[in-house]
Structures are given as structure tokens and as C-alpha cells.
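Q: Got a minute? One more chain.
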Amino acid sequence: MAVPKRKTSKSKRDMRRAANSKMVAPGFVECPQCHEPKLPHRVCPDCGYYKGKEIVEK
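A: Always. Here it is, folded:
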């Protein structure tokens, strides 16, 4: 049966766990048409434009 030879220090343990906490929520960008905040690479929910073209009628 495998048994650890040394106790894992708090520093090593926390460094291993830190990799999961680096994920962050996506940032918002300003819509070039209506200047409202929106998620990048998505149709603006307020005006319906994406890359200068109207995709959804509002």
C-alpha cells in the first residue's frame, strides 16, 4: 500500500489548490453601437448588433 514518505507542507498543499482559484468571470466590453456593457463575442442583448450588423431585431 502506498504511503507518503513525508508530510505535505501547508505551502505545497496550498500551491496545488491555488490552480483552481485562478479562474475568473469573463469581463464585459462596451457595445460599439449602443455603448451598453455586453459579453465579448456575443450579440448585444440591448440593440441586437454583432460586428456592426443587426442580427436580432429590437
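A: The CA atoms of residues 7 and 13 lie 10 Å apart.
Q: Perfect, thanks.
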